[in-house]
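Weekly puzzle thread! Below is a chain. First person to post its structure in token form gets bragging rights.
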Amino acid sequence: MAHARIIADAMSNKKWFHLLIITVLLAAVFLPILFTGYSTIDRAEAEFAAKNYSSAAQQYQQAVRLLPWRSDLWEKAGISAFANGNFSDAINFLIRAPKLSEQGWVVLGHSCVNTNDLPSALRAYQQGLQFYDSAYLYAGLAFIFREQKDWLAESDALKNQLRLDISDAYTHYRLGLLLTVLEPEQAFSELMLASALNPEIDSAVQTLRAALNLSTIQPDESQQMLTIGRGLGLVQEWDLSIAAFEKATQINAENAEAWAWLGEAKQQIGQDGSVDLDLALSLDHTSAVIRALRALHWNRQEKYDQMLAEYLLAASYDPANPAWQASLGDAYFKLGDLASALPAYQRATELAPNEATYWRLLAVFCAENGICVEDVGLPAAQKAVRLAPNNPFALDALGWSYLSSGRYAIAEQTLSDVVARFPDHFPAHIHLATTYLAQGKRAAAFNLLTYVRDADQTGIHRETAEKLLEKYFP
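Winning reply:
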């Protein structure tokens, strides 16, 4: 018995010995991997904290391959890749994660947007909302619906976003814009709240508020939508204005001006609105507004004869409107008929002697063409400034008139004041630069022109600055 026990103990000890050997071997193999894996995570987190996002993404990717049970690291790799602008990599990493946090779903959706895969972005936001009631996910959802021009769905998404984050001024403003078309009676509160949260948008809000107020006194719903659509156009929300004009025509297919404005709105976003303009004309060929909108169409086509013909008809149908006279002046100018353009601009000032805009347009015409600057243009510019002493366009026209008349010192003084008071009014910079060139102050002119070239994001005045730089500083 004792001998058997000794043999059993020996066999047991041998098994434990083999187990120990196996354990030691496994530890020798896997402990370095574990150490390397967790060290890699530490490096990844340090790189992310240091905003070295590309390196962080690589480190997280390496770590998860060393530690496959840490599949959560795929999300961190995806977030790092997104932060570095590697959107395709971000998507590839995020879809490998078994589950995502709220941030992960947001980043996945945003990454799909940045790769122009809007259907996948929509699915990401919607799937994320199944797990998280998130303002960020609703914001993403609203963006997709806006791109799809699904205004009702966008409105619902924005309402949910504001349910979770009531302090976002832009979201209130955007919802207010949508409600002007969808539920006009509810738009006021959102727009006013947006203005209170961000005074910078107050001007646009006041324009929309005026349009909404005016719409309430219109005789029917079609005219109400027409008025709202025009207000949306004034704040450059042409996509939504199209929705308003379309609604106006659906309510009343005989609303000629609604069809004309629909054509104008379509052209504003690069579409062909000629069919709508033609339909408008067939419904009412004596409308000055329709004629004027058709004139804008011909102007874009650079068909100035047709443009002039339309404005002549508009002026004949509505002879007391100074806008048509000023537009006639512009049409004559584009046709090279300066002799006819001048009296048209003058007629506009006679019809509206207390409106600075028409005096300014007359002054600019004279200054630009060197016509009657002393006896017509300069007095017109001075009149414009008296009527609107804080208007940068009027002040710029005065400085330009002084320049055109050869009064360089006072032109420099006037335009320098405009530039100082209104640094974003680029025409004044260009006119001041031209004044400097006329005086031989090349360095000062160069600085102004390069400023406009670099600062003008619209490109309208940048092109003029570039041409002057090429001419005077080749």
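Puzzle host: Confirmed. Bonus trivia for everyone else. The longest helix spans residues 2-49.
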